[in-house]
Amino acid sequence: MNIDELIAAAKTLSTPELSDALDYFSLPGVVYGIKPVTVDRAFVGTAWTVRYIPVDSHNPGSVGDFIDQVMPRDAVVIDNAGRTDCTVWGGILSQLAAHRGIAGTVIHGVCRDTAEARDANYPVYALGNFMRTGKDRVQVAETAGVINLGGTRVCHGDIIAADSDGVVVLDIRNAEKVILRAMETSRLENLITDDVLAGMSIKEARQKHHYHTLQRNPLIEEK
């Protein structure tokens, strides 16, 4: 699958389904502690990574000018080292991102101006929200590099999936097999649902479709 096909396929899946597929291949990718803080709207996009560091008082840098380089298919993914004392995303960025069709924003840190993001129907996922500006406190150290998102490695161009259950990162090198496995898991879980709604006991339906081992890869277990 090409990148457009991968994104289209991932949009049909939930983060729990993708998480189970990551487990199936014993792969990392589940992001801890980051939840929707503006609108509870799912999105999938390619990671456009940004890493912040504490401000250099002798040579302060910018805090958000990178947005001009982000494309509509992208998801802005920001590593602010998990800081919750100052923000790296606010109302101007949310409104501009929504206007440009950017997929969404994920922050290992906090955002502010959440009402403006909600008014723009723009999804921001973060550790929380807090009003204090990041100006003169942090600055951009690097864009389009490798970052840490809540303990999960994210490379520029990886696939980011976010919904009401959280955020999942798919390493672009493994994305296709993870998505295909998640689609199979989704298919089997739908069959279980159909069977129980038709009158079968949940125990029988789960046994029939091997529910309790869907996240286990027999090839890995044999090793």
Automatic annotation (TrEMBL):
The GO terms this record gives for MF are:
metal ion binding
Q: Which Gene3D superfamilies match?
A: Ribonuclease E inhibitor RraA/RraA-like
Q: Where does Mg(2+) bind?
A: D113
Annotated residues that bind substrate are located at G90, G91, I92, L93, R112
Which UniProt keywords are given for this protein, alphabetically ordered?
Answer: Magnesium, Metal-binding
Keyword check for Transit peptide: no
* InterPro entries reported for this sequence: RraA/RraA-like, RraA/RraA-like_sf
SUPFAM superfamilies membership: RraA-like
Does the UniProt entry include the keyword Membrane? no
Question: Which cofactor names does the annotation list?
Answer: a divalent metal cation; Mg(2+)
Task: Please give the PANTHER family that the UniProt record associates with this protein.
Answer: 4-HYDROXY-4-METHYL-2-OXOGLUTARATE ALDOLASE 3-RELATED (PTHR33254:SF4)
Q: What name does UniProt use for this protein?
A: Putative 4-hydroxy-4-methyl-2-oxoglutarate aldolase
Tell me which species this is from: Pluralibacter gergoviae (Enterobacter gergoviae)
